[in-house]
Amino acid sequence: AKGKGQTQARVNISAALVEDIINLEETNEDMQAVIEALKEDFSRNLSVRTSPGALDHIILMTKDGKFPLNQLGQISQKSPQLLIVNMTSFPESTAAATKAIRESGMNLNPEVDGTIIRVPIPKVTREHRENLAKLAKQSTNKSKEALRKVRSKSVNQIKKFKNKVSEDTLWLLEKQIQQMADDATAEMDKLLAAKTKELLG
Questions:
Q1: pLDDT tens digit string along 40-97?
Q2: Do 57 and 103 reside in the same domain of the chain?
Q3: I need a surface site. Which of 47, 104, 158, 163 has the fewest CB within 10 A?
Q4: Within this chain, do residues 65 and 110 fall inside the same structural domain, yes or no?
Q5: Burial, 111: exposed, middle or buried (Cβ in 10 Å; 0-12, 13-18, 19+)?
Q6: Which residues form the Ribosome recycling factor domain (predicted)?
């Protein structure tokens, strides 16, 4: 990119001036949504510390449909190495819950005792941390891909108006969209750096 090292003058177009060409607010919201989804993915799937919340999102299939584990069982932490899922309220779903935990991809091996499911938490190895850090990077790259799609969609949208508005306006708009995408990318890189540091300890 040209102009590396020198601060690029930031463009700031009044959204009202260009609302019949493109809704910049919407573009911005779409970009923010990509960042939020990445944050959510990080906190939900890429954590070394296991808390009762780590099992919340596990979905189990019951004869009545799909439910998150935390709606059917009470999840508590007995010790850093042990989570307990109490299925007393829905004993008939104990087997489904056990299967869902085992197949969650979290490397867990639940043990059933009546309606109580004990979930021993494996010790976190260096290798596991490094794998999580790799996944965080993959996740970020996927999000950047999604961000590029939002940017392209917006740029294609403004190009439809090339016969109706001045080239300058289109150029400025494109620059503004690129700026929003750059800001979002920088935000993702920050999230990834913080996450990697947390994972690798």
A1: 888 877 776 666 677 877 899 888 899 999 999 999 998 878 999 999 999 999 999 9
A2: yes
A3: 163
A4: yes
A5: exposed
A6: 38-200
- Using DSSP's 3-state secondary structure scheme, residue 46 falls into coil
* ∠ Cα 130 133 139 (to 5°): 145
Q: What is the 3-state secondary structure (H, E, C) of 78-127?
A: EECCEEEEECCCCHHHHHHHHHHHHCCCCCCCCEEECCEEEEECCCCCHH
Q: Which two tokens stand for residue 116?
A: 């109580």
Helix (H, G, I), strand (E, B) or coil at 194: helix
Domain boundary among 71, 88, 120: 120
The radius of gyration of the chain from alpha carbons, rounded to an integer in Å, stands at 23
Domain that holds residue 107: 52-120
Helix (H) or strand (E) holding 7: none
